[in-house]
Amino acid sequence: MQFEHLPATQILIPLIGAILILVSRKNIVIWATASLLTLLTFINSILLYKQVSVDGVISYAMGGWEPPIGIEYRIDSVNSILIVLVSFMALLAAVYARKSVEVEIVAEKRPVFYAMYLLCLTGLLGILATGDAFNAFVFLEISSLATYVMIAMGKDKRSLIASYQYLIMGTIGATFYVIGIGLIFIMTGSLNLNDISEQINSMNTIRPILASLAFITVGISLKLALFPLHSWLPNAYAYAPSVATAFLASTATKVAVYLLIRYFFDVYGYNIVFEDYWLSMLLIILSIAAMIGASLVAIFQNNIKKMFAYSSIAQMGYITLGIAIANHSGLVGSLVHIINHALIKGTIFMAIGCFVMKLNSTTIEDFSGIGKKMPLTMTAFTIASLSLIGIPGTVGFISKWYIITGAIEKGWWWLVISIALSSLLALIYVGRIIEIAWFQESKTKENTVTLSREMIGVTLIASITTLYFGLNTELTVDLAKIAADSLLPGILR
Amino acid sequence: MIKISLLFLPILIPFIASIIIKALGGNKKLRELTIIVAPFVTLLSVIKLYSLDYGVKLVLFEIMPNLEIAFSIEPLGLLFATIISVLWIIASLYSIGYMNAHKEPRQDNFFFFFTIAITIAIATSLADNLFTLFIFYELLTISTYPLVTHKADPESKKSGRIYLIILLGSSLLLFLPALIYTYYLTNDLTFISGGIFTDAYANGDIGNLGIGLLLALFIFGVAKAAIMPLHSWLPAAMVAPTPVSALLHAVAVVKVGVFTIIKIIIYIFGTELLFKTSSTEWLIYLSGFTIITASIIALKQDNLKRLLAYSTISQLSYIIIGVAMINSSAIVGSILHLTAHATSKITLFFAAGIIYTSTGFTRISQMRGIGHKMKLTMICFTVGSLSMIGIPMFGGFVSKWYIVSGALSISNWFVISVITISTLLNTAYFIPIIYKSFSQGQSAVSYKKVPNSMLLATIASACLTVIIFLFPEFFIEVAKNVI
To answer: Has residue A260 been placed in a domain?
Structure first.
């Protein structure tokens, strides 16, 4: 079966859907439409993935304009799997959304929320699919703007400040990115990533190219919340509506990391980025600072959403660490951890959404005894938490295994210790919640709100996938290996 | 194929039992029936395994190339599985009585996690490679955590925290990196007699120092073996109900620890390599230190269960010291001690539980004269104590005999003196308890009736201690097969 236009429809389904959804005002109708659209997106992504795995790299000229002049969509082993991942998480979060949105967002804003949700998905998928530097910027802005709106819709008034904070930081990041692209365009006269890569590799490495690398790295690092550019993230995650948090935490930062990987290994290439020791060293130091520092901060949080927001920063540290180690195992670990962390954080924030709906509070003390009241949701949460620590049998174990192997191959034992230490810190903050939730008598009065079945069902499905991928690594490790092969130069494979 | 799937039965049966227990919920009659029947069926399925050839292997998942979750049988693992399932029968009998006598709440939960823990312990014993063993090692920590915190009061929660942090922390910080490094060097983690490092050592990928450091990472990473200074989780875990302390913290959990260490020394490093590089020397001193120190601390304890916990720490190091000497007789002694200590310690814990159930006493100073009213219990306690000290007629004697004769044959005077001093110390903390309980002038107490099943279980385990002394051939045969 061949569909020629799959790369285009991948983006167009949610984009057109975002407009369509504004037609109706009935909550159930919009929800059903959004779920259906994300389902279509997901099916599309799987077809696309199948096609890539059979035919290899797909190059699609948007509107029939041939690259490098026109915009090229380029789907290969690296982004095809991430497109599936993002579509899957979008589907889960969309199905989850109905009741949660009903409770958290006022009626007249709901259609806009769903529209923004789909628009954000469009942007993220666009970044993944496009092979054009400027087009990536456009999609980055689409997803970011939609995100600002979603965050601002949170129940808590502080969501406005959080959104504004993110707006400022995000804009700075985007500006850096555009400056970087500008420099590249001056030097190469091209915006097509593939074309740029060929040109950069055939010319001598000169200062403007390095400068563009610096600008792009900083710009993207802001988006992926690399320490110390993370300050927007905790508030944004804490005050956004639950659905938005679950979706953003599992996708937005991952897509930014993808872009970083693309630039490091594809556009500039291993030789330019990692030949000089400094960038890799800097990244390693910042990653470790994130892994240890953010985990330490997470231990002392009282707001559960903030705790896991800091944990997200720490986990992003693992991903950037694997990139910075820059050998085959490290990169495989990073790619697998992108998948893992999306599933883990998706599960955790969806479960937190359920708890918060029931308890009307995000303070950790109020979670006492919740395990007995909501055993299924808490089980899902516990499984995801174990995966976060990296307990064997869960998906979190696999990626840590590879990242540690990567560090051992380089002979960096201090890195191995830092990784293990960070897992221990994760054990402490996760253990705190688990202890309170399972082993303390309940003190708080709960709401009369009843959770919908699909909320709990989706949360459970997400948690089961973390177990499934912990035991069956065909879809994660094997694909990550293929992707790493295509990203790294021959000597490092 | 049918034969291979037999391998999975000893794990599957308890697992199904745990699910039934959970599903039955409040239905007490059926639950207790399940609790009694399941261990017998499990034991049968373990016995059935003796008919299989060593080396039969069942692969469940292949997680990474050459890294699979797989089960197979080898003599030591089979012996360990047998010990667990036999003692599980006795412990089930005891637990039902204990939990009812104390009217403990949330019994379905308790027995669910209890059975899950047994499932996992049996899975470790049948693990085909270190990776599988590691996975179940971690899961065992997690599944026993709810048992430690069963009381749900502040003290048990604090203990639960210590328990989790020391056990999970050490394994994540030390065991896991060592595991990955081993895999990186050898591309294999299967248990093979003679070890898997032969090539890596011959190629010079790892030197003498490397082997020593790696061994240290493993030894300290396996904190379940409670070698000092990573022992403090064990006394902390004593807040759990007595059946848990008896089966899990005297048998399943700690024995999984020493079992892992024996497996690593014999099947991962290989005795020959360790002997050649003399990497275990420090381990002899460390475990010797643990034996003496833990015994001295035990001497000062007034709480009976804590005393038993420190005695366990000391006895576990006997097993480690035996393996660390890398001498065939000493290794036989270690493997014997694995069994002998299990039966003796479970007897002691059972007796302590009966005393607590009947009188509410937990401290030794309260126990003056109780032996007159609780003759059988105290006799069983005496049997356990004498076996711990190493008096003939009881299992502990045989194992000590082999360890000491191993030490003599390589003239390791350090070990001999450690064992001598420790025997004296054991006597010094066990005999006063027995003496006190049979002396006159008891404080007035009311004795509550103790369920017969508890008494029966205690007597059964005391008998096993004697049986090991009378018929040690079976265990010696297994131990010889291992080396």
So the answer is: no
